[in-house]
């Protein structure tokens, strides 16, 4: 294994000079710094970050435990987490829980063993927080994004969109388009979905409109359309989905049955990403600032690493933006259950 001593002897400088050159610190000529780095590359030198961390009590690494990288919202967030950390001199261990609590907990334990300085995560759910309690006992700061862990059993910093207010804003837009009977996917499987549903329904009721709650997972657009048609008349004229994949599937299911958005049913959803530009009609969406949420989370985590874990934690609310497109106008035809292809 190549050591700092080997590089120092080859370059004819002290080990301290080599250390400063490789870290980008200290005072020396550009030629000396460049020579040392060239020798380090030639000898295939790799710094022992764990050993360095044991000496300095800091490894300059953080972990990002994310639910699903296949979801563009989380992919954009991960990119921002890595970029923000990199600019601050930190490296990121990227871990995907795939919405499995056991996997999330195992990644937390692995991160602790790897001596990371802190963790950013998008939690799977809010109830079982034993792995977060372990982080607190170890004195490792963490910041959660999206789902909010129980503040009594696992208090911590949190970054979130104002889901309730933004869902109400989306409902108000639908009402302005003339909709009076609107369906909403209400799986109630986590706090984020519940906040959006409650904000949406509260605004509909305030405007004197009728809501149809569909207890079906928000990603399953096909089942949502089936449920609407099975309930029969009077049909809703619009539907809110809290996930764009569900909206895409709903559009495809309506087309399979010979119907169109928004001619037969208007749609709107949360989240936006480049792929939606290829979907016709263009979807009206409430766009979360995925990258902003990731950046704010890392900045808050780095503050905790520098200053220590506080007695009172912060919640950062990142604004979302309503993007009005083509999918939300009032239909000019009624849904027809007999349009399904047999």
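Q: What amino acid sequence fits the structure above?
A:
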């Amino acid at each position: 294994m190549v050591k700092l001593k080997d590089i120092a002897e080859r370059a004819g400088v002290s080990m301290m000079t080599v250390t400063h050159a490789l870290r980008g610190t200290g005072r020396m000529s550009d030629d000396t710094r460049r020579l040392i780095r060239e020798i380090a590359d030639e000898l295939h030198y790799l710094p022992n970050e764990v050993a360095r961390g044991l000496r300095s009590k800091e490894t300059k690494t953080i972990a990002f435990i994310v639910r699903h990288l296949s979801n563009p919202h989380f992919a954009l967030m991960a990119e921002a987490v890595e970029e923000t950390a990199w600019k601050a001199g930190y490296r990121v261990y990227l871990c995907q829980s795939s919405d499995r609590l056991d996997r999330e907990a195992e990644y937390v334990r692995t991160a602790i063993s790897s001596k990371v300085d802190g963790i950013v995560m998008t939690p799977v759910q809010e109830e079982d927080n034993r792995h977060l309690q372990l982080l607190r006992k170890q004195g490792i700061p963490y910041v959660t994004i999206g789902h909010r862990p129980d503040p009594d059993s696992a208090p911590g910093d949190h970054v979130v969109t104002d889901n309730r207010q933004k869902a109400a804003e989306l409902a108000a837009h639908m009402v302005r388009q003339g909709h009076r009977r609107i369906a909403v996917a209400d799986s109630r499987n986590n706090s984020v979905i519940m906040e959006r549903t409650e904000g949406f329904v509260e605004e509909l009721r305030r405007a004197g409109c009728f809501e149809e709650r569909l207890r079906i997972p928000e990603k399953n657009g096909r089942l949502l359309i089936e449920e609407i048609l099975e309930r029969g008349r009077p049909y809703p004229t619009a539907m809110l989905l809290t996930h764009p994949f569900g909206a895409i599937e709903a559009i495809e299911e309506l087309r399979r049955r010979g119907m169109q958005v928004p001619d037969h049913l208007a749609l709107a959803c949360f989240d936006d990403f480049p792929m939606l530009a290829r979907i016709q009609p263009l979807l009206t969406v409430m766009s979360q600032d995925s990258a902003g949420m990731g950046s704010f989370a890392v900045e808050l985590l780095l503050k905790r690493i520098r200053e220590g874990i506080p007695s009172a934690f912060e919640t950062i609310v990142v604004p979302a933006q309503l993007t009005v497109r083509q999918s939300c106008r009032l239909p000019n035809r009624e849904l027809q259950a007999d349009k399904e292809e047999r």
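Q: And what stands out in the fold?
A: The chain has a mean pLDDT of 89.
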